[in-house]
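Reopening this ticket.

The earlier resolution said the output was attached, but the attachment link was broken on my side. Pasting everything inline this time so it's all in one place.
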Amino acid sequence: MGCREDDCDRTTYARGWCAMHYKRWLRTGSPIRGERLSICSVEGCHGEAKTRGWCHAHYQRWRATGDVQAHVPVRRAGRCSVDGCDRQRYARGLCNTHYRRLLNTGDAKPDQPIRIVTGQGSSTTATGWFPWRPTSVG
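Inline output:
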């Protein structure tokens, strides 16, 4: 079976498209070269239109309330509100790590450093490296 795009006879890869058209669609939102993405139809919003001509945020508002609430500004991704943390905001003004700490312990623990798994058998914090020791299974 071939690609669903006209004038393309490549083998189907995913969603009816060949690998090239599918990956272009993933990357740009359109399988057609040079096609520009549409902008959210809510006045003043410059987000990319995903569904019903709205960006993801306005669509989710409509789904939840039945109204896109155009008068309420969309909060865009910002930084964690903990001093010294420059990670992207995840929920309640906190990054994922500080938010999880808040959920688990009731405190975001801003004074504790964030450990980062490097994928090289160790983790790092602001104070240095810690050796990674796998736990025995079973």
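Reporter confirms the inline version is readable. Residues 19-28 form the longest helix (10 residues). Residues 38-75 form one domain.
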